[in-house]
Amino acid sequence: MTDQEYKELLIKMVSISDHHEKEEVISLLKICNFTFKKTGEFSGKVWNQRKKEICLSIIPDKFVQLKSHSVYIEGLCHEIYPVSDEYMLSKVNLKPGPLADYENVSQEVQFENIQKKLLMK
Asked: Tell me: the pLDDT tens digits for 76-85?
């Protein structure tokens, strides 16, 4: 699972939850950068399984707001992390950082009346 796919899944899970401030959490997650860091540290749970950390960074102006939802977000991150013999999610870090590199842009393709438009040119 890529960082972007994980981010989208986390947002989806918040959107279907009954969390009382889910709209605020969703708006914060949309502007977060998500990065995974593989560590050399063994988990001690499964033979040869190592720990992996996830970092959610957000612009400093929104950091305190994100931090107020840290318990909820960390719980969801652990819940949706895909189980693997190779890695386990050990830690969720929230940090201030730059604005997300990518935007939530729709890539839906519209083909309505395309033939007419092409023939007119």
From this structure: 999 999 989 9
In the chain, domain spans: 3-120
If you write DSSP's letter for every residue of the chain in order, what string do you get?
--HHHHHHHHHHHHHTS--TTHHHHHHHHHT-EEEEEEEEEE-SSSTT-EEEEEEEEE-HHHHHHHHTTHHHHHHHHHHHSPP-SSEEEEEEEEEE-PPPSS---------TTHHHHHHH-
Closest C-alpha among 20, 116, 7 to residue 68: 20
Question: Alpha-carbon distance 101 to 116, whole Å?
Answer: 37
pTM of the full structure: 0.77
Side-by-side strand order, sheet with 33-42: 33-42, 50-58, 87-96
Q: What is the pLDDT of residues 15-57, one digit of tens each?
A: 999 999 999 999 999 999 999 999 999 999 899 999 999 999 9
At residue 115, the pLDDT reads 65
Provide φ and ψ at 50, rounded to 5°.
-110, 165
